[in-house]
Amino acid sequence: MKARGRAMGAFGDYVWSYETPKVMVVKNRNLGITYRLVQLLILVYFIWYVFIVQKGYQESESGPESSVITKVKGVTRSQHKVWDVEEYVKPPEGGSVFSIITRVQVTPSQTQGTCAEVGSGRARGGGAARPERRPLPPPGEKTGRCVPYNRTRKTCEIVAWCPVEEAMAPEFTILIKNSIHFPRFRFSKGNIKDSRDGYLRTCIFNETTDLYCPIFKLGFIVAQAGENFSALAEKGGVIGVIINWNCNLDLPDSECNPRYSFRRLDPKWAQVSSGYNYRFAKYYHCSGKSTRTLIKAYGIRVDVIVQGQVTDAGSFLSLPTSSRRLLLGPLEQGGNPQVGRGSHAPKVNSGRKPRGSSPHPWL
């Protein structure tokens, strides 16, 4: 009975006892300096690296939903034909990928003789041809004379199969209409200025003065990609137009602007199948028979690529648990305990407020 009483007494002491941590204050200058330095390092880590560098207080979304509509305008004339949009733009639907024919391999009714060279030297006052640098070999042998190419220009005369095919004009204009949407933040924007005064009829893209006029000259796109238009038109190639939307929703919407970059996408130094070309046929009826002319076309293919990311200030307490414990550990554990007193940890709401209630819920 005595053993049973002692067991019940020990159990009662365990159940009805109350424990509290005991804090011991050590007054030591070296230990105190070390302790404060560690606290300072942790504070600098969170303020500089987590918040400023990594922007850990922000939520982000990448890969916007995007639509691209393109339209090419311009008319050019070669020595034997006038070309318009319906003939040199493939496909005609105006999507994010299209090509502009710059040279065709088939030219009807060619004969051997002398004719004006395309894109070559210009005449000086005495009528002699002045050679200019040409990235590609001429299509014939130069005679040394300068002959009229059109009403305003003279070029070198050559002995070749005439007429000589030429590249399409680099003055064609391309409208690239882009709209993006980030569903997580319900944010949408476009790259065209909302104006009703006929702004798009007269403007040309300029990164400084006309950022929201997405009308580009073909020659400008090729030059920005670091390519020579004549060389690219000869063999063809693929140019990428990259539209980048990197936006911070903590700032006004006017600070969210598209950034354009241009580069060649196909390997131009490849020895096998370099450049860009394709074949198509034109059909007609002759003497009751169906006939076609097969044409090999060289051109510049334009790929419009849209990418981007938006960031928005999220809840401060949505930081990773390990990071939050380092910064808010004493508060989440009930503050600094004192001798002989109990304390209770405050309630912490780790949920994020819906967008629109406050841009910075954690402040």
TrEMBL record:
Keyword Cell membrane: yes
Region described as Disordered: 112-143, 330-363
InterPro entries: P2X2_purnocptor, P2X_extracellular_dom_sf, P2X_purnocptor, P2X_receptor, P2X_RECEPTOR_CS
Pfam families: P2X_receptor (PF00864)
Reaction equation(s) it catalyzes: Ca(2+)(in) = Ca(2+)(out)
Record carries keyword Lyase: no
Residues binding ATP, per UniProt: K71, V72, K73, T173, N277, Y278, R279, K296
Single Gene Ontology BP annotation: calcium ion transmembrane transport
Disulfide bonds listed in the record: C115-C162, C203-C213, C247-C256
UniProt xrefs under NCBIfam families: P2X (TIGR00863)
Recorded family membership: Belongs to the P2X receptor family.
Protein name: P2X purinoceptor
Organism: Varanus komodoensis (Komodo dragon)
